[in-house]
Write a sequence for this structure.
C-alpha cells in the first residue's frame, strides 16, 4: 500500500509550473500548444488523452471555467466520437472495455479483500492535507468556499467508510430442508459494469456516493463527472488506483450530452446512477430504462421549512434557516428554498426582518478568501436565469425584501455572484395553487421564498401539494406538533429542528415524488441492493440412491396426497 508521501499533496515549485499555474500538480491535465490544458480521461489505470484526438474539433471540447472570474481553466473533451468513418473506439468504449475485462477478476475477489482496500482509502482520505488538495480543486472549479468544499469531501468520505462493511448488507437468505434433502439459498451478486453521471454541485461527495459501493460489492465502474468540475473526480480515482485498485476496475471519462447518450445505450453497462436536474434525470431514466438498464436518479427539489412562530427557538432557527438557504450559494438539492411561517401575519414580518438582517451579514466572494460565506454560482447562465426569476417574481406581485442582484466583489468583478435574496409572498391561501415564479421554479441559487399561513395544517397542505419530495423541516419545541408533522408530511427526508436532514450512510438518501426516478435509493442498504441482484440456488442432495428427482408433472413440495 502507498503512503501519503506518494501523492501530490505538495505545491508545485513556481519555476517548474506549467503555463497555467495551479497550487497542486495535476497529472490529468495535458498541455499542448494551447494556452490552457486539456483534461484527460482515466482509463485502465492511467490518464489518457481522448481517443482519436486528431478527429476532435473545437466543438468537441467544453470550456471549464473558474466561476469567480469566468476565466478558462481547461478544456474538457467529449469521450464519445460520433463519426462512423473512425476505426478508433471512443474513449467511452475503451473505458467500458477495460471495465468489462477487469470484472471477472474483481468480482471474484473476496469481499473482505475489497472492503480492506476501502478501509485503506478511508484512512487516506482522513488525512487533512489530502482533503485540502481535493477541496482546492472543488473551490477552483465549483466556487464554493474552502470550508464548504472540505465538507463536500467529508460527507463523501462517510460513504467510503460505509463501503468497508458491505459484506453485512450483501448477505442473502437460506432455508433448510424444504423437503427431505432440499435446501434453498439466495445470494447477492454484483451486476457487472455500472456507470455514474455526477453533477457539478458536489464534485467529491456524489462520485463517492456512487463508485465506492459499486466497487465494494464487486462491480466495475465508469464514472462521468460534470464537465464543469472534473478535477476532484480525477484526483479521487487516481488516489484509489495508487492504493492498489486493479487497472480497469474504475474508469473516469469526460464529456456532456454525447457521452451520456453512449452510456445510456451501451449494451455492456448494466446500471446507471445519476444526480442532477429534473429534465436531465427524467431523460436518463427514460432512455436508460428503455435500454434495459437499472437506473437510480436523484433529481430536483423545492425543500420547505415550516416554522411555528409561537414556540420555535427564534435565534437558533433564524441562523439555521439562513445557513441552509444561502450556503453553497443555494446550489444544493437539499437547500431550504421555501419558508412557511405559521401564525399571525403581523408577527411574521419580524421574523422576515431577522432573516434579512442575518442574510445581509453573509459575505459574498471568492471561495478561497477568508471570511467568505457565499461563493459564486456555477456559470453566467445560471446567474442570469436566477436574476430573471427574481424579476419575474417581483413582477407577479411578490415583495423582494433582500435583493442580491448586482453584487460586485472587488478583484472578481467578472464572477458569477448573486447575494442572498429574500422574496416575500405574504399571506397565501393553501387551497389555491401558488403560481409565483420564485415558488414554482427550482432556482438553484441563494434565493429564499417566504410565506405566512395561520395553521400547521395549512403548512403541511402546501408542502404536500408541491410536486417535489426531497426534504422538509419543522422548527418547533412542541413534541405533539413534531409528531403530527412527521406523520402527515409526504417528503422523503424530514428534519425536526434540523434544516438539512441528509441521512448518514447507515441509512439511505430517501427523496421521493418528483425528486427521484427509479425505486432504489442511494447509499445505505438500498445502495448495496442497487448494485447487486439476487441469485437463488435450490439444491437436492439425497443420501439414498434412486431417489425421486422429479418428473413430467409440476413439482410441488410438502403437499399431502
Amino acid at each position: 500500500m502507498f503512503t501519503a508521501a506518494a501523492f501530490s499533496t505538495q505545491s508545485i515549485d513556481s519555476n517548474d509550473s506549467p503555463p497555467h499555474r495551479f497550487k497542486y500538480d495535476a497529472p490529468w491535465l495535458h498541455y499542448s500548444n494551447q494556452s490552457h490544458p486539456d483534461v484527460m480521461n482515466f482509463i485502465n489505470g492511467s490518464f489518457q488523452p481522448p481517443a482519436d484526438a486528431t478527429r476532435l474539433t473545437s466543438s468537441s471540447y467544453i470550456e471549464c471555467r473558474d466561476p469567480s472570474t469566468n476565466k478558462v481553466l481547461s478544456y474538457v473533451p467529449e469521450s464519445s466520437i460520433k463519426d462512423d468513418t473512425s476505426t478508433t473506439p471512443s474513449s467511452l468504449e475503451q473505458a467500458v472495455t477495460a471495465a468489462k475485462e477487469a470484472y471477472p477478476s474483481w468480482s471474484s475477489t473476496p469481499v473482505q479483500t475489497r472492503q480492506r482496500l476501502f478501509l485503506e482509502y478511508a484512512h487516506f482520505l482522513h488525512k487533512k492535507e489530502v482533503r485540502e488538495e481535493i477541496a482546492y480543486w472543488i473551490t477552483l472549479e465549483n466556487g464554493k468556499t474552502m470550508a464548504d468544499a472540505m465538507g463536500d469531501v467529508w460527507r463523501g468520505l462517510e460513504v467510503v467508510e460505509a463501503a468497508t462493511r458491505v459484506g453485512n448488507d450483501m448477505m442473502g437468505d437460506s432455508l433448510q430442508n424444504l423437503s427431505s434433502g432440499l435446501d434453498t439459498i439466495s445470494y447477492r451478486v454484483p451486476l457487472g459494469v455500472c456507470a455514474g453521471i455526477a453533477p457539478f454541485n458536489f464534485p467529491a461527495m456524489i462520485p463517492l456516493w456512487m463508485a465506492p459501493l459499486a466497487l465494494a460489492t464487486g462491480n466495475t465502474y465508469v464514472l462521468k463527472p460534470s464537465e464543469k468540475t472534473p478535477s476532484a473526480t480525477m484526483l479521487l480515482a487516481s488516489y484509489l488506483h495508487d492504493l492498489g485498485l486493479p487497472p480497469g476496475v474504475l474508469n473516469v471519462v469526460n464529456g456532456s450530452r454525447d457521452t451520456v447518450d453512449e452510456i445510456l445505450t451501451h449494451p455492456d453497462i448494466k446500471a446507471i446512477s445519476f444526480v442532477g436536474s429534473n429534465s436531465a434525470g427524467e431523460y436518463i431514466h427514460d432512455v436508460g430504462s428503455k435500454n434495459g438498464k437499472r437506473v437510480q436518479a436523484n433529481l430536483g427539489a423545492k425543500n420547505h421549512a415550516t416554522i411555528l412562530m409561537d414556540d420555535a427557538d427564534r435565534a437558533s432557527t433564524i441562523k439555521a434557516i439562513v445557513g441552509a438557504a444561502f450556503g453553497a450559494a443555494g446550489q444544493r438539492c437539499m437547500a431550504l428554498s421555501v419558508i412557511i411561517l405559521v401564525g399571525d401575519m403581523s408577527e411574521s414580518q419580524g421574523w422576515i426582518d431577522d432573516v434579512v438582517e442575518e442574510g445581509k451579514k453573509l459575505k459574498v466572494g471568492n471561495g478561497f478568501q477568508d471570511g467568505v460565506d457565499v461563493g459564486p454560482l456555477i456559470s453566467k447562465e445560471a446567474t442570469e436565469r436566477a436574476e430573471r426569476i427574481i424579476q419575474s417574481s417581483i413582477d407577479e406581485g411578490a415583495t423582494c425584501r433582500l435583493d442580491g442582484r448586482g453584487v460586485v466583489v472587488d478583484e472578481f468583478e467578472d464572477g458569477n455572484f448573486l447575494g442572498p435574496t429574500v422574496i416575500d409572498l405574504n399571506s397565501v391561501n393553501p387551497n389555491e395553487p401558488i403560481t409565483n415564479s420564485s415558488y414554482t421554479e427550482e432556482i438553484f441559487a441563494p434565493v429564499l421564498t417566504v410565506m405566512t399561513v395561520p395553521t400547521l395544517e395549512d403548512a403541511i397542505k402546501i408542502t404536500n401539494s408541491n410536486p417535489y419530495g426531497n426534504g422538509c423541516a419543522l422548527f418547533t419545541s412542541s413534541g405533539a406538533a413534531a409528531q403530527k408533522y412527521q406523520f402527515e408530511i409526504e417528503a422523503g427526508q424530514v428534519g425536526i429542528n434540523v434544516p438539512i436532514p441528509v441521512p448518514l450512510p447507515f441509512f439511505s438518501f430517501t427523496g421521493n415524488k418528483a425528486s427521484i426516478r427509479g425505486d432504489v435509493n442511494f447509499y445505505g442498504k438500498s445502495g448495496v441492493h442497487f448494485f447487486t441482484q439476487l441469485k437463488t440456488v435450490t439444491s437436492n442432495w439425497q443420501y439414498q440412491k434412486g431417489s425421486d428427482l422429479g418428473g413430467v408433472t409440476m413439482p410441488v413440495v410438502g403437499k399431502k396426497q
Notes: The longest strand covers residues 182-190. Residues 173 and 383 are 52 Å apart (CA to CA).
